[in-house]
Design brief:
The structure holds two protein chains of two kinds.
Chain A lengths: L7 H5 L4 E6 L3 E4 L5 H20 L4 E2 L2 E2 L5 E7 L5 E7 L2 H13 L2 H12 L2 H6 L1 H18 L1 H4 L24 H10 L1 E5 L8 H14 L7 H11 L6 H4 L30 H14 L1 E7 L8 H14 L4
Chain B lengths: L22 H19 L15 E4 L4 E4 L2 E4 L4 H21 L2 H6 L1 H17 L2 H9 L4 H27 L4 H9 L5 H21 L1 H7 L1 H6 L9 E4 L1 H5 L14 H7 L9 H4 L20 H13 L6 E4 L1 H4 L9 H22 L4 E7 L6 E2 L5 E11 L5 E8 L5 E3 L5 E4 L4 E10 L1 H4 L5 E11 L6 E7 L7
Antiparallel strand pairs in B: 1-2, 2-3, 4-5, 6-8, 7-8, 8-12, 9-11, 9-13, 10-12, 13-14
Helix pairs in contact in B: 2-16, 4-6, 4-8, 6-7, 6-8
Classes of the chains: A alpha+beta, B alpha+beta.
Amino acid sequence: MSDNTPNAQQKSGAVQTTGHAWDGDLQEYNNPLPRWWLWCFYGTVAFSVLYWFIYPSWPVGQTWLKGFHTVSYTTVDKAGQEQEREHRWNTRALLLGDLGDAARDPQRKAMLAKVEAASYDQIVKDPKMMEFVRSVGKGLFGDNCAACHGRGGQGVVGMYPNLTDDDWLWGGSMDKIHETLVQGRNGFMPAFGQVLKPDQLDDVAEYVLTLSNEAQPGEASERGKAIFHGQTGGCYYCHGADAKGVPSQGAANLTDKIWAIADVPTQKTLQDKKAVLKTFIASGVNNTRVMPAWKGRLKDDDIKLLAVYVHQLGGAK
Amino acid sequence: MSEASTDLYQKRIQIYPRSVKGRFRNLKTGVLVLAYVVYYLLPWLRWERTNAPDQAVLYDLPGRHFYIFGLTIQVQDIFWLAGVLIIFAVLLFFVTGLAGRIWCGYFCFQTLWTDLYMMIEHWVQGERPARMRLDKGPWNREKLIKKGGTYGLWLLVALWTGFTFTAYWADAPTLLADMLLGRAPYAAYFTTCLLTATTFVMAGLAREQVCTYMCPYARFQSAMFDHDTLIISYDEKRGEGTRGRTRLGKGLKTREERQAEGAGDCIDCGYCVQVCPVGIDIRNGLQYQCISCALCIDACDTIMDNLQWPRGLIRYTSENALNGRKTRLLKPKTIGYGVILTAATAILIWSIATRAPYTATVEQIRQPLYTQLSDGGIRNTYEIKLNNKLTAPMTLGIRIAGLSGAVLDMDGMERIQLEPQERLKLLARVQIPPVAASGAVGDTVTFIVEPLAGVTAEPIRREVPFYTPEGGR
C-alpha cells in the first residue's frame, strides 16, 4: 500500500478514491481488501461469537461468562473412592480428568492389585512387578522422601542417612524398612562432652577409628578401648561388644566404612578425622535425626511400594 | 466489494473434458483400477500373527507398532520411513528427468481421484456437450436429479475413501462396526470426515487447480526437465505446414492436396483441447499446467486413424528430437540419480533384512553417581532396557566384562525371559571390591546382552562409564 508505483488500475485510469478531498486536492485511494481476506475475517468474527457461548470468555463484574461446554471427570480421593465431577470447561478440570484417568488406567490398576496381593519375596523375583515398583516408587519417593534423602536416596552426611548403601541403622530387611516407614524413627546418642575429659574423648575417637582401619592401634587406642568397653564410656551398651551396632536401637555399626554422621571419609589427615569424630561424640544426637511416621499420611499400598523401592535402592539384601 | 479489485483474481473457467478412447486411456484406467484395488481392499486383508493384530497392513499408533505383512516395525525403526521417503524422492527425480511428469499423469492420487470423479460425472450427466448444456440450463427436475446424483455419488466415494484411510490405523471390521454404532473414538470420526472433505473438494471441485496452484511437485518438476526429457508435444512443423492450422475443406481433404497447398496435418478439430483435464491447448507448446496425462495423444491418434494418416502429430518426444537432434538418455544426471536410487534401495533392504531381533540399551543411574559400600567397595547402578521385537518369546542373558574384579548383581534376573514384543526395564548393580576401587577413576564397564534361547543373533555390547570417588580411597 505504501508502494509509489501505480498499479494496473491506476494506470488505466479506473482509480477509485474515497470521494473526499482535503486541503483542496488531497485525495485518498480506495483500495478494498481482497475478498478472500475479508471472508476469512468475517469467519473469525463468527467463530469468536460461537466461542463466547462455548468457552469461558467475558468478565462480568467479579465473575465471568463460563460457557456451556462442560468437562466430566472422575477423581480418586485418598481413601481410593472414585467421585464423578462435572465442571465448566477449564484447563484445571481437564488436568484433573487426565490425572483421574491415569489413576484409573486398567493396566496400572491391575498391576497395583497384583503388587498389593504379592509377598515381598514374590515381588522381588518378578521383573514386571519390579519395573512397576521402580516406576511408581520413583514418583512416590520424589514426592515424599527426596526432600531429605535426596532424589536418588543418597542422603546428606550428618543429616539424613544414605539409602543406597548396604548399611542400615534400623535394619535393611523389607519388613524393617516397612516398620521404619510406618512408625518413623528417632535417632539418639547421649552427649559425652560433659562425661568424658578432652583427652579421654581423644582416646575414644582414636579407638573408634582403628575399628574401621582408619587409624593404627596404639597406646591411645588401647586407652580408648577401655573407655569404650568399660563403665566410663559405656559405648558398648548400644554399639555392642563387637561395635557392629544394634539395629533395634538404631545404633551404628562402627566397624564398616560407612559414616552417617561424622564426615570422616572426606577428611585428609588423621588429626582432622579425629577432630570431626570428637566433636560428634561430645555433642551426641538428640532429636536432630527424626524420621516422621508415614502411617496415615500415605496409603498402605504406597508404603508397601515405597518399602520395596527403598529396599532395592540399597542393594536389596 | 468494488469492481476495481476483481481483476486481481482470475475466475476459474469450468472445464468439461470430453472422454476419449486409446492406448494411454487404457493404461491410465489400468493403473487406476490397480491402485484402487490395493487402496480400498488392503485394510480388509487378514494376516495370521501370534500375539498381534491380524490385519495385513496396520499402523498401530497406540501400540507403537507398524505391521506390514510379515514385517513388524517398531518405533525405533522409524528411520526406515526416512529411507522410503528418500527413495521416493530420488525415484521422482529419476523418472522426471527421464520421462517427464509420469507421476502426475498416471500415479498421483489427485489425478486418480479426479479421473474417477470425472467418470462418475460422465456416467450421470453424459458427454461434454450434455454437461455444458446442463450447466447453462435452468434448475429444473433433470438438472436437480443429475447434479444431485453426481454430488451424492462423489460424497459416497469420498466417505469410503476417508473411512479406508482411517482403517489403516485400526482393525478395519471392528472400526466399521464401531463407527456405525457411534462408539468409535473421536479421532476416527475426525480423520474420516477430514479425508472425506478433502477428497470431495480436491477431486470434485478444485481438480486441476490443485496441480496448477497448490502442488509444489508440479512446479519443481519442471526444474528437472532438460532437452532430452520425454514431453508430450505437438509436432508443429508437421501440423502447421506453411499455412498454419487448416480445417478440412474443399481441395484440402487428402494429405497430398494439403501439402501442395502448404497446409499441415492439423485439421484444427479441437479434440485434443476438449479432452484435456487441465484445459490447455497442447499446440501452444510445453506449459506448466500440463500434467502429461497423454489423453491429447489418444485424441489426436483417433483423428489421424480416421483420416488414415500416420499417428504421432501429438506424441511423447523430446525437445531435441523435435528439433531433429538425437535424444540422449544416458546422461550424467540420470546416471547419478540411478546410482543414488540403487544405493538407497539397497541400504534400506539391507537394513530391514539384517534388523536385530531385540534391542538393549544400558543407562547409568546418575543419582548418586556411585555408592560407597560398608566394606569399602564401590557400587554403580544401571538401568537396562530390553525390547523383544519378535512375535515369539526369547531368553536373554546379561553379563559384564572389561572391569577387573567387578561383580554384577541383578537379583537373579541376569537370565531373563521376554514375552513376544515385551519391553522390560531391569536394574543392574555393578560392584567392585575395595582394592580395585583405589584409583579406578574414569573406568568403563561393558554389558553384554546375548540370546540364550528362542533366537539367534549377535550379542549386543554396551560400554558405559563406571564412577569411583575422585582420587580413590
